[in-house]
């Protein structure tokens, strides 16, 4: 383990204020937590001491994740809280004798230090030879002399450059130190150069450095040779990076803080300053991420500790994962076309000119006008013209300097062998390999080049930029079709995969002739023969005609041409409506391979949030040339003229809500689905059954899943691969209708007129869609595992099939829940609902930043816009604009009493997207908070007492949340509790009692704000039931509106705080829970009024039909609620309010 190698070690590091040095220091502190001390040798500047420079160093964004780790609330000075316990600045200079230290200080450090890492150097290609020699050779040897004085030195690491070998012919470069020229005394050479005066240096420089392109590369080479010569038995590692670029992963993707040799050209191109370069585009562009080099420094130093040897490590992509300059340019221009720099002076575009002569001619067209303008300004120009001319000349000079600096390296090609780093990586533990990136084969170049441009924009130009997400891309904006007059039309014709299908007539014939359909037909005819006057032949014909009608209404009629027409409309609409449709390309490749298999059928199970769900997955698969699935849709869509035809032609088939009372329909549907699978088609259905109008995952529905599982056990299919897919929306298309439906209004029936009216949405911005694909689940493997584990016999016992199906359904739903991507709307809505009376923009940004950090710590998927607080607030409030009002600098939910309370419900919808992430913590939080201020904050409660409360509320809300890890045991509870203690949300007193941590108040308030609205709904529902005491009844149809009316009155009177507690979806869950717990029971009254049977009624269960029992339960639920006026209510008062609403109901 690499961190173990550094345990209790004292390090001496030079060059820590530079680009690479910062990354090395950050990684050491972040990963090697048990390092004893790190001394930083820092040269003072004219206006800053070494300590001041180190304090400035730690303010860099490079150390953001350390700040989040050690001081997330930033409630104390981080330098005092952490840095000063590990990091110690030493004022000195590597070019001075004894590093500019006193003898006493020098000796003391030599006694303490175990490891020396020398990063300090001058990388100025144009530096005069004697100055470069002083910094890169004398400075290095001074540091090495110090290392030799260290009484228990474990290792010395020297950071060099691959281009110490630039004096060698092109080709392979081995990981060895070059031998000095024969007869050359290196020490004499260095001394003679230092003694030369400036005139002699300039005159003899080219002669001295020979084939080396510049003084930097020459002096780094000399330093290596001297180290080898003077090493003795000191463990020495030399790390040679090629050209350093932005960070790939650590400390943050794209991080960069200075314009280096590796970033300058990119910056100038992005700004539209450089238009052409004297490059050979076919040669390798050897840019390596800075964190790969940092990781290699730390790992190679650990590896060589206490070994008498010297090892050289190339940190280069040339031998393992090369990319050409031309490919890098093409990817770059593609990225810049979609994400140009805001401060660009012209369109980013550059050509690579291989011929130096041609390049000079082309460069003249830029040079001549600049000189002409400059001299003209001198003669006749005003101050503004003179200023502009000077800027243009400065730019021209910069371009020339960069061209000269790079010309000797980018137009040659060396292959720097990296066997040593490859071998080192192979020896690392799996944990170390995850932490330290040594093998450059892992670099995804498309992603890295995106990160390069992102980093330059965010960290150098300080522009608002969107972080590219690893492995994902917005394919909506990517065109892989040739330019044409009709690009969208070309797009749909280039993509998609045709599928061979039988004609509708042929499929109908096969389905109706199947054994299971014929068996049901014969039974139905036999039953009717006893009462019907028709003959058996006539009855068979009637049943056949019914079957044909069912198939005409149910079955798809796939047409690739019509699918293309619909695809064209969708593609045009989505490009207008959405900024991004983001998918992971690796997932798409896996799905393509899965669909090509012959031994299984693919069944897609997406989440259901919007009507867009019906087309988005097919659209994504079509774009990736994967065959689109046959989608199981509800019969509601058959009411939409024209539209249902296009859906049917694109693969949709239509299913009734229930098969009850129609055995023929059930048999035909089952046989039709099995026919599709036998034909090799993939299927898609919504496991949740209906759109989740409350914003959170809902429990699975098992209708079609039962059909599929029975098909497997009946031997109709070899295997089924279920693919859980989570569809994540910044803004849901029909979200504004959800509050009305949650308040009990009838769902508006879909029609062609509504579709036409909805066309206005095409010109609205609905943000992003993230399509997250989870690992496919083999039904065969899943069932077999359950059979072995549980001892089931599904071929004998049908109930065992239901057990497997139920388990699988819940597994798929939980997997979808884990793949939720948290959008800016969810984050902003959560904070806004914590501050219903308003919050200023600065505090909103701070609170959003707080929530983003909580999500990161829980390793939750975030969008590019959710990763940065400022961007998140801007995007989130933009999409929530209709529900949020802004008065001056204050954001608040837009609510006019009794008019638009539904805005609260819509904000709650988006907030509920992330509730499941924190729900276990929230259960503990509200349980502890409920003990009251004195106990919760001062006296505390025992783990066991708190567990009793948590068990109760967890059981009460068991039907609300889909959780992968819920509180099944005391151990589960303890894991979450210990995490909250570690996060300083809860703290332990000396007597082991638990209290709310003084620094965790904001965290507790956030957690409570998530769960209190749900608790209030259950409290309201239970209180309403007391109005049925003793032995009164309420009809099933009247109960829901009555509970909502009762809740509305409580809200208006101030007895409950959360309007979203009126949600019909949650009330239904509460009724279901209380019914399951026998608080209420459902009865069927055998009464007929005007020839119509009355519906079922609810009344109190026997156990709870006692006032004392009801009062006891009321008080227990009351414990968990937010303290409001409701505290003054007892159950009789609440019931009295409820009965007022019941007086008009039919009992």
From TrEMBL:
<dbReference type="InterPro" id="IPR033640">
    <property type="entry name" value="FAR_C"/>
</dbReference>
<dbReference type="Pfam" id="PF19277">
    <property type="entry name" value="GPAT_C"/>
</dbReference>
<dbReference type="GO" id="GO:0031966">
    <property type="term" value="C:mitochondrial membrane"/>
</dbReference>
<dbReference type="GO" id="GO:0006072">
    <property type="term" value="P:glycerol-3-phosphate metabolic process"/>
</dbReference>
<dbReference type="InterPro" id="IPR002123">
    <property type="entry name" value="Plipid/glycerol_acylTrfase"/>
</dbReference>
<dbReference type="InterPro" id="IPR022284">
    <property type="entry name" value="GPAT/DHAPAT"/>
</dbReference>
<dbReference type="Pfam" id="PF03015">
    <property type="entry name" value="Sterile"/>
</dbReference>
<dbReference type="Pfam" id="PF01553">
    <property type="entry name" value="Acyltransferase"/>
</dbReference>
<feature type="domain" description="Phospholipid/glycerol acyltransferase">
    <location>
        <begin position="602"/>
        <end position="730"/>
    </location>
</feature>
<dbReference type="GO" id="GO:0019432">
    <property type="term" value="P:triglyceride biosynthetic process"/>
</dbReference>
<dbReference type="InterPro" id="IPR036291">
    <property type="entry name" value="NAD(P)-bd_dom_sf"/>
</dbReference>
<keyword id="KW-0472">Membrane</keyword>
<dbReference type="InterPro" id="IPR013120">
    <property type="entry name" value="FAR_NAD-bd"/>
</dbReference>
<keyword id="KW-0012">Acyltransferase</keyword>
<dbReference type="GO" id="GO:0006631">
    <property type="term" value="P:fatty acid metabolic process"/>
</dbReference>
<dbReference type="GO" id="GO:0012505">
    <property type="term" value="C:endomembrane system"/>
</dbReference>
<keyword id="KW-0808">Transferase</keyword>
<dbReference type="InterPro" id="IPR041728">
    <property type="entry name" value="GPAT/DHAPAT_LPLAT"/>
</dbReference>
<dbReference type="GO" id="GO:0008654">
    <property type="term" value="P:phospholipid biosynthetic process"/>
</dbReference>
<dbReference type="Pfam" id="PF07993">
    <property type="entry name" value="NAD_binding_4"/>
</dbReference>
<dbReference type="InterPro" id="IPR045520">
    <property type="entry name" value="GPAT/DHAPAT_C"/>
</dbReference>
<dbReference type="GO" id="GO:0004366">
    <property type="term" value="F:glycerol-3-phosphate O-acyltransferase activity"/>
</dbReference>
<protein>
    <recommendedName>
        <fullName>Phospholipid/glycerol acyltransferase domain-containing protein</fullName>
    </recommendedName>
</protein>
<comment type="similarity">
    <text>Belongs to the GPAT/DAPAT family.</text>
</comment>
């Amino acid at each position: 383990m690499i961190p173990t190698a550094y345990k209790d070690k004292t390090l001496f590091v030079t060059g820590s204020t530079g680009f690479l040095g910062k990354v090395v220091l950050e990684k050491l502190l972040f990963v090697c937590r048990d390092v004893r001390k790190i001394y930083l040798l820092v040269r003072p500047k004219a206006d800053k001491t070494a300590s001041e420079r180190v304090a400035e160093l730690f303010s860099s964004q490079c150390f953001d994740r350390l700040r989040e780790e050690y001081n997330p609330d930033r409630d104390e000075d981080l330098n005092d809280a952490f840095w000063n316990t590990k990091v110690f600045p030493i004022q000195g200079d590597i070019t001075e004798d004894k590093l500019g230290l006193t003898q006493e200080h020098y000796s003391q450090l030599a006694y303490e230090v175990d490891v020396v890492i020398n990063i300090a150097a001058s990388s100025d290609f144009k530096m005069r030879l004697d100055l470069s020699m002083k910094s890169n050779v004398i400075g290095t040897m001074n540091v090495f002399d110090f290392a030799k004085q260290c009484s228990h030195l474990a290792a010395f690491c020297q950071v060099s450059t691959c281009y110490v070998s630039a004096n060698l012919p092109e080709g392979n470069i081995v990981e060895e130190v070059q031998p000095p020229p024969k007869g050359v005394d290196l020490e004499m050479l260095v001394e003679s150069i230092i003694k030369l005066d400036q005139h002699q240096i300039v005159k003899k420089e080219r002669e001295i450095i020979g084939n080396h392109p510049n003084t930097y590369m020459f002096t780094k080479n000399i330093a290596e040779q001297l180290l080898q010569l003077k090493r003795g038995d000191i463990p020495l590692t030399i790390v040679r990076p090629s050209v350093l670029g932005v960070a790939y992963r650590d400390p943050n993707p794209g991080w960069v803080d200075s314009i280096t040799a590796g970033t300058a050209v990119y910056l100038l191109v992005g700004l539209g300053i450089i238009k052409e370069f004297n490059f050979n585009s076919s040669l390798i562009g050897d840019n390596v991420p800075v964190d790969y080099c940092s990781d290699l420094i730390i790992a190679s130093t650990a590896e060589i500790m206490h070994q008498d040897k010297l090892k050289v490590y190339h940190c280069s992509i040339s031998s393992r994962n090369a990319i050409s300059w031309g490919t890098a340019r093409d990817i770059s221009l593609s990225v810049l076309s979609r994400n140009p720099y805001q401060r660009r002076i012209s369109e980013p575009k550059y050509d690579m000119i291989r011929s130096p002569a041609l390049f000079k001619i082309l460069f003249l067209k830029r040079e001549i006008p600049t000189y002409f303008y400059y001299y003209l300004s001198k003669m006749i120009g005003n101050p503004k013209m003179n200023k502009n001319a000077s800027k243009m000349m400065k730019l021209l000079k910069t371009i020339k300097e960069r061209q000269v600096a790079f010309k000797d390296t980018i137009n040659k090609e060396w292959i720097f062998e990296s066997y040593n780093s490859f071998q080192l990586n192979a020896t690392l533990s799996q944990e170390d390999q995850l932490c330290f990136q040594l093998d450059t084969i892992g670099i995804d170049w498309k992603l890295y080049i995106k990160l390069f441009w992102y980093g330059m924009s965010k960290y150098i130009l300080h522009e608002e930029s969107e972080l590219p997400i690893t492995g994902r891309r917005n394919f909506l904006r990517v065109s892989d079709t040739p330019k044409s007059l009709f690009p969208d039309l070309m797009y749909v014709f280039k993509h998609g995969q045709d599928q061979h299908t039988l004609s509708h007539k042929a499929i109908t014939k096969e389905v109706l002739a199947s054994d299971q359909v014929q068996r049901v037909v014969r039974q139905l005819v036999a039953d009717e023969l006893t009462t019907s006057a028709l003959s058996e032949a006539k009855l068979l014909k009637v049943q056949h005609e019914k079957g044909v009608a069912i198939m005409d209404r149910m079955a798809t009629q796939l047409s690739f041409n019509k699918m293309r027409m619909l695809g064209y409309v969708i593609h045009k609409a989505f490009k207008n409506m959405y900024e991004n449709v983001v998918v992971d390309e690796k997932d798409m490749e896996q799905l393509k391979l899965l669909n090509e298999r012959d031994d299984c059928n693919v069944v897609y199970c997406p989440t259901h949030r919007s009507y867009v769900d019906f087309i988005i997955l097919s659209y994504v698969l079509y774009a990736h040339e994967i065959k689109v699935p046959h989608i199981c849709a509800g019969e509601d869509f058959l009411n939409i003229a024209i539209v249902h035809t296009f859906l049917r032609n694109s693969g949709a088939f239509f299913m009734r809500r229930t098969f009850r009372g129609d055995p023929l329909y059930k048999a035909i549907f089952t046989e039709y689905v099995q026919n599709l699978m036998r034909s090799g088609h993939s299927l898609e259905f919504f496991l949740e059954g209906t759109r989740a109008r409350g914003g959170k995952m809902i429990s699975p529905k098992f209708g079609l899943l039962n059909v599929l599982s029975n098909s497997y056990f009946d031997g109709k299919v070899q295997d089924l691969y279920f693919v859980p897919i989570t569809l994540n929306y910044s803004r849901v298309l029909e979200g504004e209708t959800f509050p009305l439906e949650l308040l009990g209004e009838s769902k508006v029936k879909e029609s062609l007129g509504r579709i036409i009216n909805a066309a206005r949405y095409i010109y609205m911005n609905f943000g992003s869609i993230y399509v997250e694909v989870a690992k496919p689940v083999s039904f065969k493997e899943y069932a077999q595992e359950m059979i072995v584990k549980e001892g089931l016999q599904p071929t004998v016992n049908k109930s065992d099939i239901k057990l497997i199906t139920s388990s699988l359904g819940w597994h798929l739903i939980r997997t979808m829940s884990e793949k939720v991507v948290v959008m800016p709307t969810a984050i902003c809505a959560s904070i806004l609902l914590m501050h219903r009376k308003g919050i200023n923009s600065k505090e909103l940004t701070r609170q959003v930043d707080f929530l983003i950090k909580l999500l990161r710590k829980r390793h939750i998927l975030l969008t590019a816009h959710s990763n940065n607080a400022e961007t998140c607030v801007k995007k989130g409030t933009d999409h929530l604009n209709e529900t949020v009002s802004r008065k001056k600098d204050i954001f608040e939910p837009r609510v006019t009493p009794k008019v638009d309370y539904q805005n609260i419900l819509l904000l709650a919808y988006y907030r509920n997207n992330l509730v499941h992430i924190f729900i276990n913590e929230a259960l503990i939080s509200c349980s502890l908070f409920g003990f009251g201020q004195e106990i919760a904050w001062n006296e505390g409660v025992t783990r066991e007492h708190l567990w009793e409360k948590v068990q109760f509320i967890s059981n009460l809300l068991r039907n609300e949340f889909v959780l992968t890890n819920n509180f099944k045991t005391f151990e589960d509870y303890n894991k979450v509790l210990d995490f909250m203690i570690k996060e300083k949300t809860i703290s332990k007193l000396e007597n082991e009692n638990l209290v709310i941590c003084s620094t965790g108040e904001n965290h507790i308030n956030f957690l409570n704000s998530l769960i209190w609205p749900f608790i209030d709904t259950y409290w309201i529902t239970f209180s309403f039931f007391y109005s049925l005491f003793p032995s009164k009844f309420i009809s099933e149809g009247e109960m829901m509106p009555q509970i909502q009316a009762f809740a509305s009155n409580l809200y208006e009177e101030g007895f409950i705080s959360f309007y979203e507690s009126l949600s019909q979806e949650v009330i239904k869950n509460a009724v279901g829970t209380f019914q399951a717990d026998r608080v209420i029971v459902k009865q069927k009254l055998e009464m007929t009024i005007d020839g119509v049977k009355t519906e079922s009624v609810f009344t109190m269960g026997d156990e709870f039909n006692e006032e004392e029992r009801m009062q006891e339960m009321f008080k227990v639920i009351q414990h968990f609620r937010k303290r409001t006026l409701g505290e003054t209510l007892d159950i009789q008062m609440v019931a009295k309010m409820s009965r007022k609403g019941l007086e008009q109901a039919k009992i």
